[in-house]
User: Fold these one by one.
Assistant:
Number 1:
Amino acid sequence: MNAPANLGSVVVRGADLEDAADRARIDAFVRAHDRGTPFHLTSWGVAVARGCGQTAHCLVAERRDGMVAGILPLTEVRSALFGRAMVSAGFAVGGGVLAVDDRAAIALMEAGWALAEAAGCPSVELRGPAPADPAWTATAGTYVNFAAPLADSDEAQLLAIPRKQRAEIRRSLGFDLAVETGSGPRDRAAHYAVYSESVRNLGTPVFPRALFGAVLDAFGDDADILTVRKDGAPIASVLTLYHRGIAMPYWGGGTHSARRWRANDHLYFALMRHARNRGCTRFDFGRSKLGTGAYAFKKNWGFEPEPLTYAVRTADGAAPRDVNPLSPKYRLQVAAWQKLPLWLANRIGPAIARGLG
């Protein structure tokens, strides 16, 4: 979208993501908004573009006085396997329209659809709530989010966790495990080794290593990696984003041996301590699909599920994308992927995953 679109009392334009002043203005709006997330920040879209080779856009709604009334970050995802779509936000579990009122939100949604049509994308996916509109389909009942306040000490945090899970954490703390945090080459190598094995075991292709590096570079002090090691070898690791006092573990996993040492329990309890030491007051455990192992794991920690609502618009005659690895249509592919040698999965996986969005 090159020319501004005048929609009602706001004008919607495409941001210049190469312009530092434009990015700073958008990011200031995101950080001041109660529903702003790291996925709304321009750093996310730019990092995804660099790490996955997709195209980043950001639509900005402005009032006549020049004040920002809303933004809509979009990733133009193109894949030979999964089709094309405008996604907000690409490679994220959140995003969507961020606006001061429904009028600005609807203007952004219409402009997003116009941008998708111009780019030849048959659908727009908003991974966040949106005002009711007959052209858009709301989707709910599939995903939930888990978030809760952080306690003010390790002991208080343990007491906030249900008894059975608390016992698992105490057991994990008794093993000879080392915890490291950082974002340097050693941290990045450990995280990718663990995460790539973890997703292979789940039957899904790993994202390009460049994506993780681009996110860490773009977010600077607002992102890091925490890794649990046994006898020097990484067995559990997570990349976490920090936003407005909230710790958001995002890409995490464990190796086969992690289960023996309760390394994932150790990992997230250590991350809660680390987040508290950083000044965080809230822990966002992230999104999970109902009925999955991840859902059960987070609920066992005492986090209550909060339903998520998304919105999608698809061109007449076109079918929405289905990129959910839990979809029955991918059952055979998932089973086959789980049997791949790790070196092969890591070789071919990124080329597939960069098209998921």
Number 2:
Amino acid sequence: MTATPAADHLQAHWTRDGAVAILTLDNPPVNVVTYHLTTALGVALEEIAADDSIRVLIVTGAGKRAFCAGSDISEFPDMMKPGQVIDKKLARQNRIFTRLASFPKPTVAAVTGLAYGGGVEIACCCDLIVADEGAQFCLPELKLGVFPSSGGTWRTTRRIGMGRAKEMMFLAEPVDAAKALDWGLVNRVASAGAALSTAMELARKLVQRPLGAFARCKDLIGASYDAPDGLLLARSLRHSDAAFSSVEAAEGVRAFFAKETPDFTKFPVPHCGSDTGFE
């Protein structure tokens, strides 16, 4: 496992384990979201996206206390006049969180300890979420007179439904890992201290998947709440035509008839565009 340059000086940095990148939110003691953490997160995502040897991304938090405990409230007083919070925080933060949500490679959040506010928002940007059995999820923003402003309102709702999302936001009460699993907020609950290792088990399976087909599937899933059926069908047909004529499909069909396991890892990671998801 190797670290990226100057990792010790960044509030978000990454290492690699084979074809898996492990991106760590690292702002002790509870990894709160600051200007510097958000900026470092954006840089790390660009580096990982550009590295074709990386096929899966895990996002985790440093230490045992928190995945990410939300925004640094000490930054708030400088943002409380009209227009300031957008310029100083939310525009950049939403752009970078959206980059994670639309990442062209499979993403897994490994949550240990607290995932509060922005921590929930970052986790919900990932394709899959693994939680330590002691993890707690909370959207406490209403207690401060604000609300989840970096995708938490809609990404949480898409995962758990309107009624449960309203309960999380309106009551601002912590949800434990067992309830988060029952609600569909998380995909797996790991034993104490095993969130990252469980996420790595999932990542090693995802490494073997055809990432072109993955990205096409993810693009359609992401649009499924917003686009009408007719548009989704047209988009699906475009993706299907490209998928059936791809090198991944050729390998999958070849391996099926040869009674072999397909090797999709020999094909490059696709690069996503802004319309159908592909350039």
